[in-house]
């Protein structure tokens, strides 16, 4: 392994796809700035990543709050750290019909999935433009491609992430900064527990869930190859192709059938 002497800033780095992405970068010689809320878990993961022979800085931030996104970048500047790569992984969902779900929880999710990502990316781009280099990996989802009954706010936030990522990629095309969107499908992480989604039919066949490591490898390779986006997994590529051939109302109905609660008690 060759040390790159470049920092990667990764949000949501202590679990799921974010954790697996952090491992990919560490294995390939990148120093890490890992961000999550749980200080103890950050320390455990930092100790693990350091075994790859890289520097690891852990910063505890609650990215449901926009001021924490600003303060994260202030801390980096105070320590003269200019990450070469930004990975916006942190994100959550909430399950249920919109009429029944908690609006405060949904506003928090919009702050996490969209607002904090906008702030961190804006600050990253302004920092990297004078240097003429940089890479951004944004966690979108195959959910970005279809309306999502029973998971409507999450699907909508991911549609925003994908559209916005493709727009700023075009704006930055002559700057040396690239933007890549990673679109996983249902993946074997703690996401569904946090979304209180255990009743959903989509989880009936746990064996069909993707491995977070495989998703992370797809995302890492797409980022390094400067691809605009990557749909992770053949099954997800096929489902997106099918959605593209359907009307929005048909796609929404199909997704409702996939995501509605199971009949089982």
Automatic annotation (TrEMBL):
GO terms for molecular function: oxidoreductase activity. The keyword Calcium does not apply. Coiled coil: none annotated. InterPro entries: NAD(P)-bd_dom_sf, SDR_fam. Gene3D superfamilies: NAD(P)-binding Rossmann-like Domain. One of its GO terms (cellular component) is membrane. It holds the Pfam family adh_short. Keywords: Oxidoreductase. It comes from the Bacteria. Belongs to the short-chain dehydrogenases/reductases (SDR) family. This is Short-chain dehydrogenase.
